[in-house]
Amino acid sequence: MGLIAGMRALSELSADALAYFLRVAKQGDLPVFDLGPSQAVLVNHPDLIRQVLVDDAPKYWKAAMTKRLLGKGIGNGLLVSDGDYWRRQRRLVQPAFHAKRIEAYADVMVAQTERMIAAWRPGLEVDVDDAMMRLTLGIVAKTLFDTDLAGDIEQIAQAVGVAQDLMAKAFRSFIRPPDWLPTRDNQRAREAVRTLRGIGLRFVRERRASGEDKGDLLSMLALSADEDGTRMTDEQACDEALTLLVAGHETTANALCWCWVLLDQNPAAADALRSELSTVLGGRPPAFADLARLPYLDAVIKETLRLYPVAWLFSRQPVEPVSIGGRDFPIGTRVMISPWVMHRDPRWFDAPEAFRPERWLDGLEKRLPKFAYIPFGGGPRICIGNSFALMEARLVAATIARRFRLAVAPGQRIATLPQITVQPKCGLRMIVE
Asked: How far apart are CA 103 and CA 280, in angstroms?
């Protein structure tokens, strides 16, 4: 019965993964279900999520499937590593995301955005999902690696797209062929991995060969030593570089895409945002110092991330028997947490399906249970670049919205594609106004 139920669940996941987990969540705070050949549990209450991500964090590692799928491309980077190795790598990478350093990235974010929209004119149709991907990839490359990816953007974008597609397919599949079989998907995966790792290793080796410390993330990866004097190998530095390059651009790009869709669907919110930008900026581009005076902009980004969180689903596996909410689970159970589900729970958010930036203007964040709003995860493994991503999203949105409105193009279908992130399924063509 469990195997049949697991196969049925995978079939439902393939049809509509987001709707599937919303249905599971209706079974309670800790519904247990079969997923393929294994048992899974959805942790569906802020207090229980805190227990998994904070209180009992050492008892959990990243899920084996996550390691297998992501590890092909990004090696043993922060997204998939565990234990002492993860702690060491996080310690070496963390200084690149210090508040003062992130503040210094603001001018680059605005300048890159201004350069992109310099060619925009009213009436122009823009492939917005492609534009946001290219923009955020360029921003990450310049701020964290002090490099221009002009010659590599096509290859990186294509490789990331292939990797996303194959990982989503593998997640929904009951039978996954071994990596050594010469299937079309395996060949595509190997080619994407070769592309990404070739670019990552080139970054690391060029910086090490120069010996130049530019104070950016790449220098920290290539040149910094741990407390015991050991340095990362080229492969280890490449793992972290790729993790932050890939995760650091794709997540923010998707959030911005949904931001433009939501603003187009909610003209009153778009008008309120433009009014605030006009009052505070007076026609000039935004700067870091302006962000504290743009509460509605902050609310728009928070509300976008509520409806379209950075990762809609993530999982852990206990490395020892655990108890969640008084219920016991064995080693290897797939413990799943879905920000998509939590952020649509009417216990925590009024009219949860509605786009209402105003909900964040009256202290909602302080009133919410700590783990009811988790667009970047939580606990010691919270996304290391969350402050970077929030600043980037606000500055890019402000730079564009102060000059243009983006309207969904006639005939453009708006649908979701849940992969690691939630992407626009049919692309996103919009008209510049």
From this structure: 19
- How far apart CA 209 and CA 342 sit, in angstroms, is 47
Fold of 2-432: Cytochrome p450 (1.10.630)
Helical spans, DSSP H, in 266-343: 267-281, 295-307, 339-342
- Phi and psi at 317, nearest 5°, equal -130, 130
Written as six digits, the tokens of 187 are 């060949």
Closest Cα to residue 332, out of 30, 19, 38? 38
pLDDT given for residue 310 in this prediction? 85
CA angle 248, 251, 253 (to 5 degrees): 100
Rounded to an integer, the average pLDDT of 216-225 is 80
5: pLDDT confidence band, cut at 50, 70 and 90? low
Q: What tokens does 97 get?
A: 């995301």
Kindly state the average pLDDT of the residues 250-277.
96
From CA 378, how far away is CA 366, in angstroms rounded? 16
Residue keyed to tokens 């292939």: 162
Nearest to 414 by CA among 342, 298, 308, 274: 308
Residue 223 contacts by C-beta under 8 Å, 6 or more apart in sequence? 207, 208, 211, 213, 231
Q: How many CA atoms lie within 13 A of 118 on its CB side?
A: 8
d(CA 7, CA 12): 9
Residue pLDDT, tens place only, 150-177: 677 778 777 777 776 766 666 666 556 6
Q: Walk across the sheet containing 429-432 and list its strands.
A: 125-127, 429-432, 406-408
- Tokens describing residue 412: 């453009």
Q: pLDDT tens, 270-326? A: 999 999 999 999 989 999 999 999 999 999 999 999 999 988 999 999 999 999 999
